[in-house]
């Protein structure tokens, strides 16, 4: 399954166009390699997605063509969720 479609169907990213844009900017890695929106995703792959100040690492459990909202969370497991620290001092 294409990366952009997987991210939309699993509801990690709400819109496929946004998933495509993020992937094509090099902000998503599959198993340690930079991925494009057309990259194939398989079960047991590890995805690292960089959103602004958040990095999300997920493991692919299942590939489904369509899902209901309740079933979408079965498609992946969150391995790690990191937030960038803001070191600015407030005056």
From TrEMBL:
Gene3D superfamilies xrefs: RNA-binding S4 domain (3.10.290.10)
Residues covered by the RNA-binding S4 domain: 1-64
Pfam families from the UniProt entry: S4
Family annotation (InterPro entries): RqcP, S4_RNA-bd, S4_RNA-bd_sf
Any single biological process term in GO: rescue of stalled ribosome
GO molecular function: ribosomal large subunit binding; rRNA binding; tRNA binding
Keyword tRNA-binding annotated: yes
Coiled-coil intervals: none
Family statement: Belongs to the RqcP family.
Quaternary data: Associates with stalled 50S ribosomal subunits. Binds to RqcH, 23S rRNA and the P-site tRNA. Does not require RqcH for association with 50S subunits.
Protein known as: RQC P-site tRNA stabilizing factor
Organism in which the protein naturally occurs: Levilactobacillus parabrevis ATCC 53295
